[in-house]
Amino acid sequence: MLTDAAGEGALEVLCLGDLVGYGADPVACVETVGERASAMVAGNHEHGALGLLDLRWFNPWARAAARWTGEQLDDGHRDFLTGLPLLRTMEDATLVHASPRSPEEWDYLVSAEDGLAVFGDFDTRLCFIGHSHLPGVWSVGSGGPDHCGRLDRPEARVHLDDGRRYLVNVGSVGQPRDRDPRACYAIWDREARSVTIRRVPYDHAAAAAKILAAGLPRALADRLAHGS
To answer: Around Cβ 116, how many Cβ atoms within 10 Å?
Structure first.
């Protein structure tokens, strides 16, 4: 993803959390993204691995992965992840893992009603989220709501029109949930006034093999090939 973004001319990296939690390379993820990101927020899987979130909140697969992940992190990694905020603002965008309303509740924004209900909970023109792993967009303006729906087309692009505000789910670099096994992320182009969803093929078979070699649940490995 980082290579693809650089090839597209991206100048900065923004991370919306869940650097760790399902995969077998938590240390590499924390160090690589931590070195490159201009802004980051924490996700529920960081909090689970750090013991900041009751693991009963997770399903059995995620619970096992959170416990294993926590054992891989040294004090420096733990301090770094513990210091990440749940929400932060960068220029005219709010960054949050789950929802700008009570981020610590880890609510899923999936339906049109879910997204439209939280526009009063951020002041910026844009809000970027993840959490559900499903790329999508919600928008409101003086004429009311519009452009609510999934961004599951190849190279799905949202033009940021004057007088409108946007909530965008950027998808997931790993563990997709929309039947597309490729990594998914978004490019925010300030000059072009657009947000574009990018899909990037990667060696998910090698990632799955690492998950199994680490002794993590097979389901976490198998689902990489199906994007579900």
So the answer is: 17
